[in-house]
Amino acid sequence: MNAKVSVILPSLNVANYIRECLNSVINQTLYELEIICVDACSTDGTEEILREYAKRDERIVILHSEIKSYGKQVNMGLEFAGGEYIAVLETDDWIVPDMYQCLYEYAVADKLDYVAADFDVFYELQNGCNYYSRRALFPPNKQDWYGKILYSEQIATLRASDYVLWRGIYDRKFLNGNHIRMHESAGAAFQDMGFLQQVKTFAEKAKYINESFYRYRQGREAASSVSLEGLRYYAGEFDWLNGREAFYSNLKGIHKKYYYFTMSISFITKYEQVLECLEGNWQDIRLAEPYKWFRKQMVAAINKRLIEETMYKKEVWERFMILLASPRTHAVQAVRKKIEKEEIMKLLLHLTKRRPVAIFGCGNRGERLMHFCNSNNIPIASFCDNNAALHGERKLGIRIISPKELKDELYNKNEVVILSMKEGKEQVKEQLLNLGIEIDRIIDEIPEGIL
After folding, report:
1. CB of 418 within 8 A of CB of 358?
2. CA 20 to 30 Å from 7, out of 94, 137, 434, 451?
3. Is 85 helix (H, G, I), strand (E, B) or coil?
4. Residues 45 and 73: beta-carbon distance below 8 Å
């Protein structure tokens, strides 16, 4: 069988998730797949599961890496692969059945170097159901970029926003012809950033589809995205890229500007994530050491006008400048913002008195409020809505009830109701009061910052 897509699955101790992942691959509507599983000496039964599936499906091949490096595993898969296009699938995630068929058909029809789509992140709610949230690449003012062929200068502007390789497939001859490989650093340390910076440099034709195929799992404690070494990983990735002559010598014009823009966004975003985990300790070596490397790069880029204020949102540019000038001042402001966020949470907890909540309104704001409550361990009893067609249904595993049912529940179960809507709040409040619901059971002012 001539494979149309070679799917590389790097794994390390993912026995709890690997079956769901493998099932989503072997059941793809595109059958002509080469499924390359590259395991890095798992000890939790992952490898045994891979062998079990390989016995049932001849398309599966298992490779072994003695080195625990995501980049090494993907590179091994790239060297082995024989398909027309290459895909990488994280083995704690899964994909919808027609992902590779859809992407492949677009890629072949327009002879694309790569084609990609949106994805959903998901995490498990209090009730065991999964909550999915789409991550759209293009904002409202660029919706017309979906579905059209993008060329080099347009691709360059996506360096900072398209930073995950598993959302798409990549022409194998294009990758090999431009010697595009991953940094073989230890662990799973943001190596897809380096891979995609190379892809963006050499790609001449690409397309993004306005659909979501990939399901990305959040909440795993072992995930590299939550590592306190994150800033050091990013510094290592960009330093490695800077040393790749074939890559760096091809960075010109808009590509070079957006490369350094991407470096700066990676710097400030990851710096602030780690800083929050370290409770404002900007002197911790896990920040202080890579900070010196990034600052040197950033100052040089600003002096060469590769980084300019017009490329940034005002608030991001201000934080960036403060961080470059004084990490201590930046840390003081970051800690202040964290305290403000914590005060918002405390205020809502105070308003609810930790009682179960019914969320009035099933729209986007209701979903965001549900997400906040779930993240902060506020029990969610139900959704309530005036739309009779929704009554008796479930949203995210949560019951949707009528206002009359809500009245009964509030009295019988000591719940409170939070109004999620932005418009019509006064009318709903009046409606609930007319039903006999006490005013101290109604929270109509959601603290600023939650929604």
Report:
1. yes
2. 137
3. strand
4. no
Report the sign of the C-alpha dihedral through residues 181, 183, 187, 191, in that order. Answer: negative
| Parallel/antiparallel/unpaired status of strands 150-151 and 205-217 | antiparallel
Sign, CA dihedral 286-291-292-294, equals positive
Query: 41 with 69: CB under 8 angstroms?
Result: no
178 phi, psi to nearest 5 deg: -105, 10
Contact 429, 442 (CB under 8 A): yes
Residue 184, token pair as written in the block: 């073989």
Q: How far apart are CA 37 and CA 60, in angstroms?
A: 7
Q: What share of the chain is helix, strand, coil (3-state, %, to 5)?
A: 50, 20, 35
Q: What is the pLDDT of residue 222?
A: 54
Give the pair of three-digit tokens for residue 338. 């964290």
Q: Is 128 left (phi over 0), alpha (psi -120 to 50) or beta?
A: left
Tokens representing 79? Answer: 């060297």
Dihedral over Cα of 227, 232, 236, 242: its sign? positive
Closest by alpha carbon to 306, among 220, 248, 382, 376? 248
- pLDDT digits 0-9 by tens, 297-346: 999 999 999 999 999 999 999 999 999 999 999 999 988 888 877 787 78
Run of H or E including 115: strand 114-124
398-401 and 380-384: which strand pairing?
A: parallel
Report residue 81: phi and psi, to 5°. -60, 145
> What pTM value is reported for the model?
0.89
